[in-house]
Structure formats: structure tokens, C-alpha cells
Amino acid sequence: MSQSELPLILKKTFNGDLYFDFRNAEIKLGGNAGQKVTIPIGLPNRNFTPLQLALLDMIVESPDNKIDWKVKVNGVNVTKEFKPLFTAKTDSSVYSKFVFDVTSILNTEESMSKNWVNVTIKHEGGTGFSLKTLLLLSVYESEDGKTSLEYRSGLARLKPGERFHISDGEAEPNSTVKIIYGSTSKDLIPTLHIGEKIVRLDVHNDFEEYEFTRDSNQPVFIQVDETVKSSKAKGFLLANVIAFNTSLKTPVLVGNVDSVRLEGRDLVIHLSLKNTGESAPDSVVYTILHKGQAIYTSKDVERIEPQMVINRRIHVKIPEGVDEATLRIIWRKLTKTWFLDLPIHLK
């Protein structure tokens, strides 16, 4: 089976950082089930950062491909037509694939102010259906990041004995690859072949995800093997092959607690920090932890540029009996988060 069975939707390089959120949903709507559901999806550290791309990729199972529904993203209807992009029939049902470009919706001022997206799905009538998967793929815009993306989506069906070639290993860059796949039978044995390495793909749910690294000279393919119980009517579904490379100029904070003193029950800490990385963090948060509980949190308002050294004074009342704590410094850049723990001894 060739790659044409799973169409190339997008191949592009962006200035920014890539983020995925995949859900194995298994939500039934219509019939005796509920009529409406809202699914929150996280977009970490959004902080009004524009998105260069936001795609919502969904799989629905139903008795046929006539799905009477409405899908809203942050309150905006995206189902202008009910016809799916791709379908795959089994003995008892139809799997339908929908892909929505929601970039403009998520770049409104209201959406950019939130660290999450609300996807609302409503059954409008007719027979019921099951939402099987939900994938939000987004690229945060930034000159400090670069993402090369090759996004394939569909419902390629492999029968026992068939293969799907992801890469022939010729003149292709090293990349990370994410696949989303499912099986209509637990009797099938799907395997992923990466050069000489063979990985058996688990199918605990109807659909799963798996991520791996592909070297430039490695042929990669998926093969579905037959078992005694398997039949030609049973199949393996490949829903997505997403290959990507990302690079990010990261901030790196190193620091020292210069002095600690008690003034009654007030704790005074003098701290020095240096950014030894290549870019400024989007945010920096200071938290004091005692036995895993936060007793103080504050956010830095000053932008810490590369090679910049800053000094901070933290003043906090502490509970009685505290003789040691941890100062945790958390910093974020686009979709990434790091932290540094510094011990505080009060005796």
C-alpha cells in the first residue's frame, strides 16, 4: 500500500513551536446516550501568542456516514457541511474522518487569552454516533522556533498481510514521527518496522498513538500480520502519519540563594539568577515549597534576556515549625516548561 492511501494534507516549515494534544475519546452521543458534550483541550502557556496553524482532526464511528451533528470550537460552529473527508467501512459500522482548520478561531483575542480550547459536540438528530479520537495540532508563532511539518490524514485500511510504507529511507531528513492507528480486531498483529528494529503496536483501545524517531537512511513501514483467528474482513486503520522537526532557542536559568535570614516569622531570601540560554523566557515564577505544599508564589515582571543577571529579594511569612524548604524557579517558553530547585535551610 502506497502513501497515496493516506493523503498529504500539509507540508510546510513554520517559525514557531509545535504542540499536540491527542484524545482517545470513546464518547457516545444520541440514542440512549447524551446529546451534547464539551471537551476542554489544553494549550499551555498561550499568553496571547498567535498560532500559525491549528487543525482539529476527529474520527467518528456510526452506522453510516450520515452524521447529523454540530461541532463548535470556543462557541464558533465549524461544521458547515456534514460530509466527512474520508470514510472506512467495516462489517458493522462506518468510520468517518473530519479535519477542521480552526486557526482563525483560536487567534481571536478571547481565545488567545485562554490556556485551553473548548470543543463542543452536539447530536442534532437521527442515529447516534461515537466520537473515537480528537487531535489538536497547533504551531505557536515565534522567531525563536522553527518547525518543519509533514501532516498526513485519512483512514488507510490494511488487511492481513498488507504493508503501508511510511518512508523509503532515501534522501529524507531525520525526524520525529507520530502515528495514530486503530484496529477492528484484537486478533490482528500490527508491527512497525524502523530499519532493522521491529515494534509491536499495542491496540488496547480502538485507537492509539505511537511516536518514534526516524533516521534519514531508514526505511519505515507498518505491516499487519495474520493470526489463526484473523480474516480478510478484519482490518487495521492508519489515521495519521505526522513527521516533524522542531528547534527552539531555549532560555536556561542558573541561580544561587545568596542569603537566607529570619525576621521573626518572616523569611527573607536574596537570590541571583543568570540566563545562560539563547532567548528570554516568556514567564518566570518563584514558588517556595514545604513538604510538597506551596507556601509562596510570585511572578517575575521583568524580561530576562540572554546573558542577563538579575537579583531578587523574596519576603514571605512562613508557618511555625518550618526549618527547611525549596525555592522552585519555573520558566516557560512557548509550549515548553523547565524548573530549577534550590534548597533553603533555616537553621
Characterize the quaternary organization of these chains: single chain
Instruction: Give a count of the beta strands, DSSP E runs of length 2 or more.
Output: 25
Q: What is the H/E string? A: EEEEEEEEHHEEEEEEEEEEEEEEEEE
Query: CATH architecture of the largest domain, please?
Result: Sandwich
Count helical runs: 2
CATH C-level label of the largest domain = Mainly Beta
| CATH fold field value of the largest domain | Jelly Rolls
- Overall shape: elongated
Q: What's the overall average pLDDT, rounded?
A: 90
How many distinct domains?
2
Could you tell me the strand content as a percent range?
over 45%
Distance between the termini: 69 Å
Q: How do the strands of the widest beta sheet line up side by side?
A: 1-11-18-13-16
Biggest β-sheet: count, sense, barrel? 5 strands, antiparallel
The share of residues in helices is under 10%
Over all CA atoms, what is the radius of gyration?
25 Å
Structural class: mainly beta
Please describe what this structure looks like:
By secondary structure, this protein is mostly beta strands. The protein folds into two domains: 7-248, Jelly Rolls (Sandwich), CATH 2.60.120.1200; 253-345, Sandwich (Immunoglobulin-like), CATH 2.60.40. It is built from two helices and 25 strands. The strands form six sheets. A five-stranded antiparallel sheet has the order 1-11-18-13-16, with no helix packed on it. Strands 2-10-4-8-7 form a five-stranded antiparallel sheet. The chain has a four-stranded antiparallel sheet with strand order 3-9-5-6, with no helix packed on it. A hairpin with a 4-residue loop joins strand 7 and strand 8. The chain is elongated and about 75 Å long.
